[in-house]
Amino acid sequence: MSAPAPVRSSQETAVRRAMDRAAGHLVALQARDGHWCAELTADSTLESDFILFQLWLYPPNNGRWEPKTRPLIDKAARAILDRQLPDGGFSIYVHGPSEVSASVKAYVALRLAGLAPGDFRLVRLRECILALGGVQAANSYVKINLSLFGLYPREHCPSIPPEVALLPFDFLYQMSSWTRAIVISLSLVHAADPRRPVPAGFDLNELWLAGVNPAFPRDEPALTWRNAFLALDRLLKWWERHGFESVRRKAVERAKDWMIERLNDSDGLGAIYPPMMYSVMALDVLGYAPDHPLRVEALRQFNSLMVDDGERFFFQPCFSPVWDTAIAAYALRQADCGREALPRAADWLLAREIRRKGDWSVKRPHTEPSGWAFEYANAFYPDIDDTAMVMLALSQSSASNGVAQKACQRRALEWLVAMQSSDGGWAAFDADNNWEFLRHVPFADHNAMLDPACPDITGRVLEALAATVSTAIIRPCAGESIGSCAIRRRMEAGTGAGAWPTSMEPVSPSAVWPLPGRTTARRTFCAPVSGCAPSRTPMAVGAKAAPAMTTASSRPVPALRRRPPGRCSGWWPAATPRA
């Protein structure tokens, strides 16, 4: 039963006024050059890592630790304590439970910041850590960081040798882009085998759970990928002691060149906190002086992630201007508000199209560079999700140079299509980044070793393609709906939450968002994928319902105006436009 007309009119008026106020506020936040950039927050691990990083940068002198960044360390400690949970631990997402790695990092940082072991906050934290398995239960990166200071046995940390840069089959590029940047920079640190000093009397003996072996546990079945990699890790440790120095020198040189190349055209290595921090450490062990321009710039970029406005202190994991600008412009256009802000936003986005080849080109060597990163500058790592969002924004905004905009949209469209993975979906940075056995590598316990296709990004790409492609530049194809198969496969695997592991949604909205524009019955994006029953779902403009998905063993997901399954005779963007 619908509301009476006067009630609907009153509700619509209230909604319109609220939208206008929100749009006015959003426009007021736009920078003069046309972009938006909101603050990006994370958990307490960034502040914890910052304090340990200061111990690296400013070692103790005769056992006394008096770093020149002491005021910042004190602020970081307060920021950490502000997020302590009632049970004493620290979580890795809002309203989450205490997590052992974040809790160990916080304990180390707070001890270094000057809290006494008997402080009631550290007592509760220590009890929480022991209840979660002690320091032995922390992940590999926590153990590796601690081992740099002799706080965890190096022999019980996974080896990360620089020789990974020499492996065949483009092995390095089978890891996710974020893991790749961490592994190369950290491998340089690992190769130097540093033993940085700690303040006199500082240790973590109280965090060790009695009776628990610090070595990596083996699987019960003898023949598993995990056990194979653990055996390989023992071999690598032998290589560290007895391997050929010439091979090690070549590996270090290759890894160094790889890292330094990616410090160019970038706001730091990978333009994100962990590899930015490790790149400074790597430059240190490579012998770069503190005043060397490369090292000065790397540290400056890392410190630029700090927010210290006198009232708040925290670190951003990275900057998000491209995403923020694209989604703000798209929202304003969808709401039919703030149109005066859109041309400047479009101009700013066009100026940040990436026009050089990056890591993605290893698997797509013949694709013309395009796309957008998440950050201000990260030329080696254009982001598929951000590119789709920018295309959505540009499809509804006009830049000052229409010819340049059309050319840019054409390049971005072809790049997006080329980045489709063989399973029909799209990932965050790479195509076909799916060597599943790599998840069993000892240092893969950060749960981000791979970058597989996922439904949230696939959904946004489909939306962007539908919003961007016109019937003048498409050609027919046959096969199953790419969104249908990619979403189904990820849901069957239990990974439908999207690209990021802390997502709490069973399926991200973009995975079930409709294709905008004309009724999709006339333009369905498809790709031939075996093992799935093809289907298509016509939707009216603006309808918000899930596309129908059918498989040989499942019924269709309910959708608006669903047609019976049948052969897909949809459309795919052609390589060149037609007149």
Give a structural overview.
The protein is mainly alpha-helical and 579 residues long. Among the domains are: 45-315, Glycosyltransferase (Alpha/alpha barrel); 473-579, no CATH class. Helices cover 40% and strands 3% of the residues. It is built from 17 helices and six strands. A two-stranded antiparallel sheet has the order 1-2. The chain has a two-stranded antiparallel sheet with strand order 3-6. Strands 4-5 form a two-stranded antiparallel ribbon. It is globular. The two termini are 50 Å apart. Mean pLDDT is 83; it is low at 471-484, 495-509 and 512-579.
Please give a handful of descriptors for the protein shown.
6 strands, mainly alpha, two-stranded antiparallel sheet, Glycosyltransferase, 579 residues
Question: What secondary-structure arrangement, pairings included, does this model have?
Answer:
Layout: H1 5-28, H2 45-57, H3 70-81, H4 100-113, H5 120-131, H6 140-147, H7 177-192, H8 225-242, H9 245-261, H10 273-285, H11 293-303, E1 306-308, E2 313-315, H12 321-334, H13 342-350, H14 384-394, H15 402-418, H16 455-468, E3 474-476, E4 480-481, H17 482-492, E5 526-527, E6 571-573
Antiparallel strand pairs: 1-2, 3-6, 4-5
Helix pairs in contact: 2-3, 2-4, 3-4, 4-5, 7-9, 7-10, 10-11, 12-13, 12-14, 14-15, 14-16, 16-17
